[in-house]
Amino acid sequence: IPYGLRNVSAGQFAQVQPLTNPPVAGDIILASVEKIGKNTRVELANGRPCTLHVGDLVAVVFGNRYATMQFEGYARAEGDTCDLLSMGGLCGLVESRHSGIAESSKLRILGSVAGPDGRPLRLRDFALPRRTGGAPELSVVVVCGSSMDAGKTYTAASLIAGLRKVTDRVAGIKLTGTAAGRDSWTMLDAGACTVLDFVDGGYPSTYLVSLPELLDLHQLLLEEAAARGAKWAGVGTADCLLQGETAARNQPR
Known about the structure:
Blueprint: E1 15-17, E2 28-35, E3 41-43, E4 49-51, E5 57-62, E6 65-66, E7 71-74, E8 81-84, E9 90-97, E10 105-114, E11 139-143, H1 152-163, E12 170-174, H2 182-189, E13 194-197, H3 211-227, E14 232-236, H4 244-249
Parallel strand pairs: 5-9, 11-14, 12-13, 12-14
Antiparallel strand pairs: 1-10, 2-5, 2-10, 3-4, 6-7, 7-9, 8-9, 8-10
Helix pairs in contact: 1-2
């Protein structure tokens, strides 16, 4: 069970049913590893990297990904096959990839994962509930960058570490991106009192998420951070300003 499904309790993985409809972002499936490619490991829900072997069974979630240095992929399947799009457990079909990246690891779909009640699992069903305490009183700093590996996470962690010299109530928030735990662990290591990301809002990734949904997600995560005692929030964004939703979110409003 990978990082992208960390909010789904083990007891919910109760049944496997035929996948009868075309997949959409957030659908959770069981798959077997058919071929090892770019992602030789998955990050488990507890953060431990787990080496993949052909024949392994993995729970994964359909989603869209846009990563300038890795894959462009979409929440689709080709028959009973799909690609592993990220170490955090995102799956779909690769549309294009960076020339320096190996082909994706290949998965064979075994079926849709359903809960004890027989209903197929979807990630949005495991989003945090909304808080009703009004607008959060938080000071917010947003970190964005020109591309992958530009130093956004380093900057966010440095920001948190600096603020920790004057307060122990600093939250780390990853607003946009693709499910993976590295940024969250880095912000926790820097001393964040709590760390939240889009997975906590029920999104396996944020590529192609509409601006109204993204603003609502932003509010949800700030409200939750404030409820957990944060007075400051360092908010990180994905990849680059050329990605539509990241560019829109950083426009003056």
